[in-house]
Amino acid sequence: MGERKRKQEREGHKDFIFEKKNYKFMLIGLAIIALGFILMAGGGSDDPQVFNPEIFNWRRIHLAPTLILIGFAIEVYAILLKPSKPSSD
Question: With bands split at pLDDT 50, 70 and 90, how would you rate the model's confidence at 78?
Answer without folding.
Answer: very high
